[in-house]
Design a protein that fits this description.
The structure holds two protein chains of two kinds. Chain A is 33% helix and 23% strand. Chain A has twelve helices and twelve strands. In chain A, strands 6-7-8-3-9-10-12-11 form an eight-stranded mixed sheet, with helices on both faces. In chain A, strands 2-1-4-5 form a four-stranded antiparallel sheet, covered by helices on one side. Chain B has a single domain, classed as MetI-like fold (Orthogonal Bundle), CATH 1.10.3720. The interface between A and B is medium-sized, with 34 and 23 residues.
Amino acid sequence: MSQPLLQIRDLVIEFPTRRALLRAVDQISFDIEAGEVLGVVGESGAGKSLTGAAIIGLLEPPGRIAGGEIIFAGQRIDNLDHDQMRKLRGKRIAMIFQDPLTSLNPLYRVGEQLVETIQTHLPLNNTEARERAIALLDEVGIPAPVTRIDGYPHQFSGGMRQRVVIALALAAEPDLIIADEPTTALDVSVQAQIISLLKNLCKNRGTAVMLITHDMGVIAETADRVAVLYAGQVAEIGKTQDLIKSPKHPYTSGLMSSIPSMESDEDRLIQIPGSMPRLNAIPQGCSFHPRCSKAFGPCTEKRAPLVDVGESRAACWLYAAENGNG
Amino acid sequence: MLAFMIRRIFQSIIVMIVVALISFLLFRFVGDPVNQMVGIETTPEQREALRVQLGLNDPVLTQFWRFIWGAAQFDFGISYQFKQSVAEMIGKRAPATLELSLMSAIFAMLVGIPMGVYTGLKRDSWLSKFFLTFSLVGISLPTFLIGILLIYVFAVQFQVLPSFGRGEVVQVGFWSTGLLTASGLKALILPSITLGLFQMTLIMRLVRSEMLEVMRTDYIKFARARGLSRKAVNFGHALKNTLVPVITITGLQLGSVIAFAIITETVFSWPGMGLLFLQSVQNVDIPIMAAYLMLIGFLFVVINLIVDLLYVAVDPRIRVTGLAQ
């Protein structure tokens, strides 16, 4: 098999604070294949967005990459300087943020922002860039793009603005789009449209997507594979169907059973007791063990390695021991 | 757009009438101008004759109407002290003050905005910290002291710049300008810096805090994620978004710069309106004071009008609300 588009190896992101060094992301590893949709789920603070920001090189100081490697298309990119990274951003890796209402600069016409982005990455003159901008707007489903291109962001609705944002992200045909909760700020009725739009556009172009969300429904519909993050670590990673049907890690099973189901008649949802630990109080051993119903001996002592369990990979002592990785 | 402008101009006229009313009433009650103009040996009959001549015995409304009607035609009567047309006297001196104010505003913006951008972008560099400390000095030192310091350093110690006057001026129509001669430009440097220093530091601090605010926004993050160059992000996207408050403050400050050029003009013996105003206050020369007040009011109104139009040019969102009203 050819090399994955993106490889993340033991990525560590730290925040130096006055009191202590906080590890927000602790040795995360995963791959994204070309054209694949990888869902990244986890609670708030699990390190999803930070991982995305680290890939595109936009970690906000004082956050910094303290270890590990990010390899994109065979090239290590976590140590590139500002200009080299800038040439990658937008051109090969694009990012979509949560809130479309604030992602667009209110003072510039939608077309100006599109043309600016297109011309930054592609050698097109003004007319060509404008034509391309109109084509992009058409493609993301903006009605009457020829006139709408001269509108200002405040003249667009939330869903339409997120479409514009997607058009901006696709402007230079990137290989990978990091979508950081692209639908959280939108109406439920619009969410599905935006997700299917993003999915179809990327499928047609062979663009890989790292879809960061905490909405398992979105993941189930969209993602090829899922990585479940917990307290800055990968708890489980595997094919979406496997993860949903037979979750391996107790945290994943907890997540799955906390999704309301149409079929069962249960009155109450099952919930995972407790909450994710704060960064300055991550327990020793497996960080999930205080909340885990299956915790036993080794869980309190040492962090479990990520091992193959069936088709998936999980970081849990229930499986690590079986494979002899003690 | 046209409706917006017409509405604003209409509002401006109302403001000007109110200013006229205030300046008219204010100076009706500062004392009897006749006492100031005549000697001790003037007979009551002569005084009465002077009153009639100045129209001081007419009903107040008539006097007010005369004042407004005159003001609308730039006729502010005859100075009690100098026996000359007030409009002419102010017209002669206004170019000096306006040029000084304009230069100091340009200085404040050309230096203040880049310094603000720099300190906003490189928060932790030592140069930013130096600028901030320096701006504290600029804000806290009184204008006359800065003027005297500058005179001491550049006029007395190094003797490179003149310490008083406008230098050579060239007459362009009714406007006497110092911008066209070397000595006129040189003479402008120190007073402009003195007058503009406070504004410069204010603009710098304003731009800095606005930049800090804007750099945190999502659209800046997204602009970076799109791979735009640092220049495009910082100046195209960030700076433009800081401009609305900067235009407001700069506009209002330009008005105050003109109105409060008095101190700087005194320090540098600048032959502008400020000096004239000070003299007229000493002499209770009511027509000059009233005209000065009207002129400053007029300048504020014009500047505010321009500021409003600039908003519309910068921020499309204002365009819509302006039209919808």
